[in-house]
Design brief:
This protein is of the alpha/beta class. It has one domain: Glycerol-3-phosphate (1)-acyltransferase (3-Layer(aba) Sandwich), CATH 3.40.1130. A hairpin with a 5-residue loop joins strand 1 and strand 2. The relative contact order is 0.16.
Length: about 290
């Protein structure tokens, strides 16, 4: 191709120079669609590992039952005024299996300034069925959920290890829709890491929070330090056999009775396993 100049000479037509492809900003590319940052997660693992190994001394049984690929919905019992089980489970799986774990968190927790953002950066996701479905079905990730909800960590010392109802079995329906198994994990130790002595329901209602606890940690360490300082309870975690559902995924609806029965079976299995683990435990602090 050529172009005609004023003097009638033909000169080659220059093509406009192509702009180089934009360089991805590492500060943005490190954060996925859910707000998780692998860089922040690595920092969190480094900082948390001494607590995991030397304070809680976490020991696993059956860790190999968690799939090393594909989606799976992990469910566990929930405890401690400020739950200590979620970081232990997420850290242990990521450390041993090298798979990221996304933890579903209550919307109230996610809305907290600073705390909500940091929770997102280390794998926290707002607890919503569509979020869980997308992570499980489309992205084939491991997702952690606590079916007891806020009723779990809201248990007082005399109610420890007594599982609350698993809601309406929504976690089972999500697993059915996504076509993934449910992997139950029984956790012993979290109940004693920050036990609730009693609650102040009137103030909790005024503050718009599920419960306002007075913990043994607050009495030992003071009201502020007691919110972050856990007692050194020995953690034992047992992974139960994955529960598969022989139903087609992506159905518009599933049998309500079947969903409820499956949820109750999982709850009962976890409850019986917890009782067995407690019978075998010789010491809260040494296992």
């Amino acid at each position: 191709m050529a172009n005609l100049t004023r003097r009638g000479e033909l000169v080659p037509l220059r093509r406009p120079e192509e702009a180089p492809p934009p360089t991805a900003d590492p500060r943005l590319s490190d954060v996925d669609d859910w707000g998780r940052s692998e860089h922040m997660r690595e920092i969190a693992r480094t900082l948390y590992d001494p607590i995991y190994q030397h304070w809680f001394r976490a020991e696993w049984e059956g860790l190999g039952k968690i799939p090393t690929d594909g989606g799976a919905l992990i469910v566990a019992n929930h405890a401690a005024a400020i739950p200590s089980d979620a970081p232990v489970i997420m850290h242990g799986i990521e450390k041993e299996l090298r798979r990221p774990v996304y933890g579903l968190a209550d919307h109230i927790f996610k809305a907290m300034p600073v705390v909500g953002t940091m929770w997102s950066r280390v794998g926290g996701v707002a607890a919503h069925p569509e979020n869980a479905y997308r992570l499980l079905r489309e992205e084939q990730q491991l997702v952690l959920v606590f079916p007891e909800g806020s009723k779990g960590p809201g248990k007082t010392l005399n109610e420890r290890y007594q599982l609350r109802r698993f809601g309406r079995g929504g976690f089972v329906e999500i697993a059915m829709r996504a076509g993934v198994p449910v992997v139950p994990i029984a956790v012993v130790g979290a109940e004693e890491s920050m036990p609730i002595l009693f609650k102040v329901p009137g103030l909790a209602r005024m503050m718009g929070i599920p419960y306002l606890p007075i913990t043994a940690n607050m009495l030992l360490f003071g009201p502020l330090l007691g919110l972050i300082a856990y007692l050194p309870a020995k953690f034992r975690l047992k992974v139960l056999d994955p529960v598969h559902f022989d139903v087609p995924p992506d159905q518009e609806r599933y049998s309500r009775s079947r969903v409820m029965d499956a949820a109750e079976d999982i709850r009962q299995s976890l409850q019986e396993t917890l009782y067995e683990m407690l019978r075998d435990r010789r010491s809260v602090w040494f296992g």
